[in-house]
Amino acid sequence: MVVPIGPVDSSLIPRYAGRDGFARLPRLDQVGRADIVVAGVPFDSGVSYRSGARFGPNHIREASRLLRPYNPALDVSPFELAQVADAGDIAANPFNIGEAIETIEQAALDLTADDTRLVMFGGDHTIALPLLRAAAKRHGPVALLHFDAHLDTWDTYFGAEYTHGTPFRRAFEEGIIDTEALSHVGTRGPLYGKKDLEDDRRFGFGIVTSADVYYQGVVETVAKLRDRIGDRPLYISIDIDVLDPAHAPGTGTPEAGGITSREILEILRGFRGLNIIGADVVEVAPAYDHAELTGVAASHIAYDLVSLLADKHAADAAERASA
Hints:
By secondary structure, the chain is of the alpha/beta class. Helix content is 37%, strand content 16%.
């Protein structure tokens, strides 16, 4: 059995020194192959308000220096259960969104060869479309859990079809998401009109608003979402603005009344055992962050996603070994 190469030992090398990869993990080129890969897409040409999410991947990595190798909430040591590595950043053309989308899709396909699972750091939410395209090529149309203050199912902005507000409408039109298992979580705030919600329902999305999470609680929210997803291959897309600006000020389109960092972590932990095949954490804009609040939240979200993937990887390996 090959023993995974883990992060730098912080009891020997201070957290502010040494490797600068996510959670101080090795680079992908240092391990050759990984079961789970994290990577960044420093791209924000699809934003409609504040720019700056192109600097998000390294901000998340910097904040992740405080992460430790044992996750007590899930009772797993993810870096012992699976080889996890940081593949660095994907260089996407900032002046041509169409070309950037193609580049991201191909990179995701390359990184997920040999059943590797991918957690991607944005960048703006435009990157979710090519990531879903790659996931669908690997698994067929996928279930989608979309954590966001916004629907992101609008048609166009200024006539542009590919922006951070349109990826899930395009994904529906392309048939790459499973319309029986689509959910928004944490949505809130003003819309352009009631038709936004009517279109969204037509695409097959269910909605759990931030108010629903507040009134119903985490346990009921998780139960409803698990029932909707079943055992389908699941992609999780997390816009950091799903959190209230008190927890994540460093983002491009903040909305008051969001969920807390505690709530999103507990909801994610409720997905243990689901067939998660990939995820992204996007819209972290460090220029608007304060005391790394947003970076810390994003790094912990990514850590729990990696923990869930590592736990599932180990369970699947044990099942194959006993078959």
